Every structure is written in C-alpha cells, then in structure tokens.
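Please study the protein below:
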Amino acid sequence: MKQTILLTAACALLALPGRAQLQDAVPANPDNEPVPVHPVPSHRQQVWQETEFYAFFHYGMNTYTGVEWGYGNEAESTFAPTGAPDPEQWLTAVQAAGMKGGIAVVKHHDGFCLWPTETTTHSVKNAGNDYGKQTNIPRDFAAAAKKLGMKYGFYVSPWDRNSEHYGTDKYVSEVFLRQCAELAQYGTDQFEMWFDGANGGDGYYGGRNTTVSVDRETYYDIPNLRDSIHKVCPDCVMWGVGGEARWIGNEDGEAGETNWCTENRGSAPEKNGMYGSENGWFWLPGESDAKMTNQGWFWHDGESPLTAARLFQMYLETVGRNATLILNCPPDKSGKLPNATVGVLNQLGTLLRNRFATDYAKQATIEASATRAAGASRNYGTSNLTDDDKDTYWATDDGVKEATLTFTWDEAKPLRYVELMEFVPKGQRIRGFRIETTADGSTWTKRGGSIQTTTVGYKRIIPLNGSTANSYGAAINAKGLRITITDSKACPLLRKIAIY
C-alpha cells in the first residue's frame, strides 16, 4: 500500500506544470550540430594557430658577442648597435614572405633586456652608445606590427644567467614575473609569449659563478603567470613552459606526417612533439621553430640564408602538417636584416603566392557520398568547402565515419597540391584518408606517394607527387580528384578543401 501511494505521488509530481517547464527548458539542437570531440582549442589557441607562419627575430647582446648563449657577465656597453634597430624593416621583410606576424627576442639567457626595465641594470639603459640606449624593442616592435597589420609577441627567457636572484623565490616574484608584466603593457593584443625550455645551468648569477638547477614545472609559478598575462592580453598564448602550445621536438622545420593537436602536459610534449597523442588530455598544438640562415639563431659574421626552395619545403613540412612555423630571421649589428636575407624572403613570398594562386576546387563540381542533414539555420553541404568561411563546414551524420568527396572538371586541370582543413573548434577527428586522381573519369590512381595520409587537423597539404623536397615538378593532369576519408574518431568535419 505504501509503495502504491509513493508511486502515485511521484506520477503526480511529474504531471505538474513546473515539471513540464523544466522539460521544455532542456536545450535542443535545432541546427543539428555535431557533438564536439574533446579536447578542443580555447579561443586564443584557435586564433594563434590561424597565424600559421610567422617570424622569429633573435637579436640582442649575443649579436655583438658572437655567441649563442651568453654567460650573463657581459658588459652592458658591449651592446652598441651601429645604427638604430629597425623592427619595422624586420616585419616588412617577413610580411613580403607571406608571414602574418613575428616574435621578437627581448631577453635571452644572458639576462640582457632590450627595453628599459625596472628589474635589472643589465639592460639597454647602460648600452655602449646612444643607439643602444635609445633602443626599446618591445615598444618599437609592437608599434611596427600594428602599423603593418601583423601579429606580434615577445620571447622572454625564464632562465637568467645574470641575475643574482636566479634559483630563489625572489627571482620569480621580483624579476621574471615583473618582466612579463612589463612586456604585457606594450600591447594587449599580443598573440604569443615565448618561454624557452632552458631552465638552469652554469652562469654568472651576479658574481656567484655557479651552477643552478630548478624544476621548471613548479619554479616559475606558471598558473599564476598565465592568469596574470591573460587578464591583460586575453588572446596571448603561452608557448613552451607556459603550457598552451608545444615544441615540435626539433629545429629542422619538420613536423610529423601524423600530427595530433592533442597531447599531455609535462615532459611528454618534448619527447613526442612531432606527433602529439591521439588521446591526449589537452589541446596542445605544435609549433616548429627553425632557422632561415646556415649558422646560429643569432646573427654571425659570414652567415648566409637558406634558399627559398628549402624554406618552401619547410613550409610544407610544418604548416602543411598541422603545425605552425616560426622562422628565425636574425638582424645584424646594425639592427636590421641583411640584404641577402631580405632578398630570399621576397623569393619565398613569390613561391607561396604563385604555387597556391589558383584553387581548382572552386571550379569543380563536388559530390559527397554522405552529407549531414541541415539544421534550422545551418547546412553541411559541399559548398562550405570552398566558401572561404572559417565558420562553415561539410559534415556527415553521426555514426558515419567514412565518406568520399569527388571533384570533377569538364577539362583536365594541372594539379600539384591538395589542402585539407578540419573544423577544429569541434576537435580533431580524422585518422585516415586517401587521395586519387583520374584522367578519364573511370580509372583512379592513388596520389601522394608514401606520405602518411593519417591526420589532418587544422591544416594538411599533400604534394600529389609525394615529395616535399621537389613538390613543384610536372603537374598531374586530371579531370577528377577523389578524397576518401577512411577512418575518423567521429563524423568528419571539413571546413576547407583546396586543390592547386
């Protein structure tokens, strides 16, 4: 009897108007949007990866001493530029190469600061001439970037071989965090702050001349640093030690052909940087740092730039493999990029513009083997692949993890590259795909050579001839190109396909 009364009461509660209102308030999915595959990028990580290709400018005390890692005991007067350092010249040159921004080194391991900081005397305040004393790289670099419509950020070394406080709590609170806060004031729209992984060793350390070792995972108070910087610069990604983007694992301008944006924080990103981890707990995309010159990161007498063809190969093997590319272009003792460097950057820009000039996907008839049902205000058709809108995408229905997209033309087109982009705000999904072409509409030939066609991620570029080193050989004349997604973690989402 008691059970009957309780059941009757429960049914009565379910029938109350308030319960009906609660049921009506349950969010629906009127646009039939796919469920995200976690982890997904934060907004700042998303806009950071959209930068794709940007410059590194290693300039500072080492430019004048000829070493790569200063000991920290350099006389401040050694910093004596032979002309006024010119960040606008730097950025103008890399913009011509197709780069969208740059990171300026403003403090390397020697601790010398390229702005008039209040945290140390080891700075431009005590430079060896008027050009040096008037130098303020973060101020001038930020102003030049804004003038040119480019993104900008700063490299500030956590390791400081000059500071007497390094290795103590005082260094973190009164030197390093204060320096980062000072740099944040040079612009709230910074896109990246670069923290090198070097974290201790021998050094001058204010005259101690000793070896100091720290645990970088705890010493630098990174959670507090992230929160502090993000309050001022909401779209600034903390690279490396900051834990929002990972090192690709080499300095050769090469990412893995299989490359996941997902990874785990800690030591794993450096050990597995080229590839990421399919089931990583964090969105931690890879950045590839590489040199465009044949010597060190800083300028050295007698150095020369790599060829534009080699730099184009780096682009294919980084940006074209779901990583970003930060390419180092070192200014010389005059505070400017050498003429030879500027010339190669212009050549690289010409290669990128010419080789990706004509997108034949926009001229094609596109058929999909499967397309997700449209929602109230959004559709998932193939037209989204070529509309240049980063917020639209083609998709399949839930549970459909394999699909084919076929591009055809009435007349044969000279094809060399296929570019694919997933809609990463809902996670990285694709685990396998295949590209084929046909000259007659019936016989299909696999393309891409032995390149692993596994992951796509933010962007993947496949040279159809299978070679990143000699990708612009004879074109493949085709009347059709077919992309088959063979495996995906969930229904695949592609924001763009371009065929060049």
About this structure: Residues 1-24 have pLDDT under 50 and may be disordered. The radius of gyration is 26 Å.
